[in-house]
Amino acid sequence: MIEKQDIPGGRLHLLKKDGFTFDVGPSFFSMSYEFKELFDSIGEPIPFELNELNPLYTVNMAGSDRVFQIYKDLDRLAEEFKGIESDFESKVRGYLKGAKEIFHDTEYKIIKRNFDNIVSYALSMATVPMKHLPKMFRTFWAELERHFESEEVKIIFSLVAFFLGATPFNTPSVYNLLNYTELEHDGYWNVKGGMYKIVEGIMGLLEKKGVKMIYNTEITSVQHSGGKMVSVTDSQGQVYRADLFVVNADAAWFRGKFLNRAKYTEAKLDKMEWTLAPFTIYLGVKGTIPGIHHHNYFLGDNFRAYADTIFRSTVAPEKPYYYVNVASKSNPDCAPAGCENLFILCPVPDLRVKPDWSDANKLVEEIIEDLGKRVNFDIKNNILTQVVYTPNEWQKVFNLYKGSGLGLAHGLNQIGALRPANKDEKLNNVYYVGASTHPGTGLPIVVIGSRLVTERIVNEH
Ligand SMILES: Cc1cc2nc3c(=O)[nH]c(=O)nc-3n(C[C@H](O)[C@H](O)[C@H](O)COP(=O)(O)OP(=O)(O)OC[C@H]3O[C@@H](n4cnc5c(N)ncnc54)[C@H](O)[C@@H]3O)c2cc1C
Predict the structure, then answer these.
(1) How far is the CA of 379 from the centre of ligand 1 (A)?
(2) The pTM is what?
(3) Cα(64)–Cα(273) distance, rounded to whole angstroms?
(4) Which of 53, 118, 139, 257 suits 224 as a labelling partner, its CA being 20 to 30 A distant?
(5) What are the tens digits of pLDDT across the range 326-385?
């Protein structure tokens, strides 16, 4: 494996500074059983300890002291929405029933299978029960409106849409299935000792299997002939030959940059839909902050207007919406005694729309001030260490196209056979894994993607 960074893991990266340890990207995941199945498939026990989140997360609304704890236990969740949404429990059960049906009706037909062409994809789509068809034409938000009346419930249940690279107002309603995966099916999980334990666990197994790792070098060109890739060359001019190549760089960007494919020129890539770029702040803070939990969303009071402009705005968001993860709440080793480590993620427009981040400090200050007020703690004057990644760093460090954090978005025009395929169109020994190929982004989904590629390689070679 040839890796640009000095450590493995990609976006599941680790940052250590001044006695604090931060998970750089992912902080939790759904569908934990995908990891269990991955290790089962090689006859190994899972090499890290899963930790179920309860509550799943906490939501702080602007302009009120009300904090919603989102529980998987629906009786308990109903308590949270008492006085806000009448008859919540029966409404949420009705809502989740529909979401459950579409999840199980598409899981093996669309997500967990390979497609060789558009026809096989269309045929598979045709076997999904017709009753789900209206969900293709309705938005995520419209589906929520069919079930709930209060803005609070609709906003909270629609937050997940942003992960797909769109807003709830233009995401198809089929993706309400994500609320089923988190609220009923499997919940949310993280890993004891921090998310990087996943990488350490996998690396232990790879070493046992004799996989050779080469770090700190970047593939800068590829050589092919007669319908096959022959070798790749790195930034130091070293040439690596192989029989088969699996590409983990972005599947769309790689085809344009290294294979000069007309469908993936910069102009074409710019026209595609990409997920939002992350603006991330890693803070080591002196003191323990009582008003904050492990996973927290801090929202403003203009949800619709914010959602409408966030992808298109050429300036940094004012009154930003953001997510805060405080790993030290459940994993004290991440911070020195009496301190907290804060990971703050604010989704922002990518570099196509806002290429200049020289104003990053303003956004950092705004978020730290807002957060301090909302959790009633002087964060600003207790910062012991601070690191900021703007979309520029995300692009430069991880080769993420224009800083898009989760790769290509998941509109109906960019999924299944319409997503860059996991097998190269022209070179029959080149395969792709990761966020921008099939089935898509997020830790459990890229694990599914790696299994689909393995299946292909075993069948075809
Ligand atoms: C801020 C943030 C928060 C996230 N939070 C979550 C979360 O909570 N839960 C969740 O499930 N998902 C989350 N995600 C999404 C998740 O991180 C991704 O879907 C997943 O990690 C993608 O894996 P990948 O293999 O596609 O890419 P990567 O993990 O980025 O791996 C690609 C690797 O290829 C290397 N590389 C690229 N080009 C070259 C080259 N030319 N030569 C050599 N090496 C190269 C890169 O350095 C990198 O190590 C988050 C993402 C971000 C950015």
Answers:
(1) 29
(2) 0.96
(3) 35
(4) 118
(5) 999 988 889 999 999 999 999 999 999 999 999 999 999 999 999 999 999 999 999 999
